[in-house]
Structures are given as C-alpha cells and as structure tokens.
Amino acid sequence: MKLITQKIFIFLNLALFCSCGSKPTNTLETAAEKKPNILFIVVDDLRPELNFYGANHINSPSLDKLAGESLIFERAYCNIPVCGASRASLLTGARPTRKRFINAHIKKDEDYPEAISLPMLLKQNGYKTISNGKIYHYQNDDAEAWDEIWHPKSLWDYALAESQEIRKNTHRGLPFEAAKVHDSVYRDGKTALKVIQDLNKLKEANQPFFLTMGLSKPHLPFTAPQKYWDLYDRDKIELPESYIQPESTPRYAFHNFGELRQYENIPKKGDLPNALAKELIHGYYACVSYIDAQIGLVLDELKRLDLEDDTIVILWGDHGWNLGDHKLWSKHVTFETALRTPLIIKVPGKTKGLKTNAITEFIDVYPSLAELTSIEIPDTVDGKSFVPIINRKSVEKNWAVSKFKDAVTLIKGDLFYTEWVKDDGVAYARMLFDHKTDPLELDNLSEKPQYQDKVIELSKELRQKWGKDFLTK
C-alpha cells in the first residue's frame, strides 16, 4: 500500500515541474541505426560497501537488482578522490596532472577547455543531453554540452525547521538529520521526480538521450527520512577493523578530516567518540538506502515506459569515502577506501550479473560509452575502453593510477604503491601495501630491506604510467 501511495504521489508531483529546454529535434535514423539511450547515474561519496560487493548489512534492493542485470566492476578506481576533479576527469576521459583536475573546486571549462567532454561528444552526435543534479561540481560548467541543466532547490538539504535554523546561523549545520517526511522533501527525491518527468518527455521524442541523475547523498550531511534510519540497529554497528594509524605509515597519508570537522558537534581535533562515530556510520547507511529508493523509482519508470531494452544504464560513485577506516573520515587520501568505487553498467542483451576483476579507471568510462554508441573517441581521451570485458574478452591493461595532491598511487595486481612527489617528480615519501596479505593496508612495506628492488621497479613504472603531461600540465 505504501508503494502504491508513493507512486501516485510521484505522478501527481510530475505536473509541478516545468517543461524546460527546447523541443527535441527529430533524427533520420532508422530502427536498425538507432543509437542506444544512456541513463547516467552519479552518486556522491558512495563506497563499494554494497551487497553485490560482498557486504550484507546495507538495505539496497534497487541497486542489488540493477547489479544483477549489469557488469559489476570489482576493481574500479577513481583517478582522484575529490568530487570536482573526479567528475571532470571522468567526463573528459583525461588524467589528473600536477596542475589539472586537482581539487573539488576546479572547472572543466578552465582546466581543460579544449577537451570535448562526453556529453558534448554525444550532443554532437545527435543525443539529447540533460544534466540533472550534481554532475559537474559547478552547475554551469561545460554548459554548452547540455541541452538542459537542472538542479533541485533545497534549503541546505535539511527538512526540520530547527536544523535549518542551525544551518542558517553556523558554517555547515548538523552532520545528520532524521525527519518524518516524504522522500521528495530532500533534494535527491526531487531529482528522482525530475528524471522520471524527463523519461516521459523523452519517450515521445525520436532522438537518443543522455539523461543524467546526479545524487547528492550519501554526501554529508547525512540527512534522510526517518524510515531509512529505522532500517538499521545502531547497537549492531561496529567500527571498522582498520580503526588504527600504524607508525609505519607516513604521516602524510593521514589528514584531520576537515570536511567533517566543519559540522556542528564534531570535535575540532582528535578521534571521534565511539558513539558519535557509530551515529555517523548509521547516517551514512540511511542515506545509501534513501538514494537506493530514488534510483528504484527511476528504474521502474524506465521499465514501465518500455525504454529498458533501448537504454544503457551506468552507475558510479565519484570516489570512495572513509567511515573510520584508518581513523579517517571523508576522502582526500590514496588508501583503497578512498580510491575504490562502485561501477556497474547494464547493456541490454549483454550483461546479467557478471563480475570482473579487471583493474578499471574512471577515465575508461568515456571511451567505453563512445564505443558502445559507435562514436569516434577524441584524441584528448586517455582512458581505454572496457567494452571487450562486456563482450567477455580479456583486456591487456591491468593497472590504474590515482593521485591526490602530492600523493600518486600505482595500483597493479595486489600491490598499491604510493609516492609523495615534488613538482620536479622527486619523491619525498612512499608507501607500499600488498593486498594479498594486507587488504586493510596496515603494514607499509616500502622501507623494508627485502622490498627495495620492488620499490625501485614500481617507482619506475609509476612514472611511465602517470601520463606524459603529468608534471607539465
């Protein structure tokens, strides 16, 4: 009964949205030539702590269902663990460098204006392109690539008057909120309604579409309807096994998680009290369940409109997130908890719950979607297509490179090798973890005598693979 009521509410609310953008242009494509649609779902701060990645404690039935119809990348890595840079890098297919795509506040238009972005490429090839929610960090970045840009209006994403008042009078407000409100009160609920409206509009157009759904949760603050908090028993939530900062790990690897410290009632320094840490983990889980429900509504509508068989669905989290791992919160490090991300793609007729252990980088998404839509890949793209994996073939590439500030990490096989380098490329610190024996990254091997030959080898390989323009652009 609740589901029926919610769907009725959704369709009633669709009328509240204006029909933005120009009327789609008809194409001359025949049915045989028609390009696939793309539903592009971006989730902010999503960890691969989901059932289809081996976890069993987060309630996410919609994501689980989508994964069962998709190719699941077990080893997908962002190229930089901060939202603005990660998104711009993925959407251009270009590697971050010492000066390009370096933090949350970059703009594609300023950092790499000459690159043809993925939405621009698709637009130039007959696609209707719609940006909904947070796709780039800044709403009007790469504006020419979109036929329409839409953002939800929300008062700092707090539903309760008292929370809004605290936010009004402080820098960030409370780090979490549970409110007995409808899903559409928060911005991601509004985004789901807009995407559903778009699907209904696009259904009538004889034009392929690149439709995006940028979800803001589970980014801080952890605000979600009460019913999603109620899915979890906080007494059963445990701190991570890696809740430690070993002496062997360089101090450069850690930070004071300033992103979280800006919120009210968070200590300005030191470890968090255990009760507060568990409340934050609880809030994160609630937000994942909340966005899962919004994704489910959109996927149900895609099916109801008979668009499912004509639409590629790709879902990714812009980077990982620390939930107490290494006694850290937020991203901004090169531990696997910040670099490894969820990435799944559903290609009608080709994927059905398959998994791959192939090491994949976010810059590989662009050329893969270009290949799936039979569009030539621009020269500015650094990534390599993973379409052979979709076709159940092997790929030669077995590595990834990620960076944050001075830290640059080579991921190869079970090894995670990081160097902190100066502008001239000279290293001033390093760490090496072997995930075969140390998956939690607690034993830095880089200074141990028996690993020095391996360090020299990995250091050379890192420089070969971080990109020819890494130090100069």
TrEMBL record:
Annotated CDD domains: iduronate-2-sulfatase (cd16030)
Protein name: Arylsulfatase A
Family from the record: Belongs to the sulfatase family.
Cofactor(s) this protein cannot do without: Ca(2+)
Species assigned in the record: Algibacter luteus
PROSITE patterns in the record: PROKAR_LIPOPROTEIN (PS51257)
Keyword Transmembrane helix annotated: no
Superkingdom per UniProt: Bacteria
Keywords in alphabetical order: Calcium, Hydrolase, Metal-binding, Signal
One CC-aspect GO term: cytoplasm
Residues in Sulfatase N-terminal domain copies: 36-374
Entry's Gene Ontology molecular function annotations: iduronate-2-sulfatase activity; metal ion binding
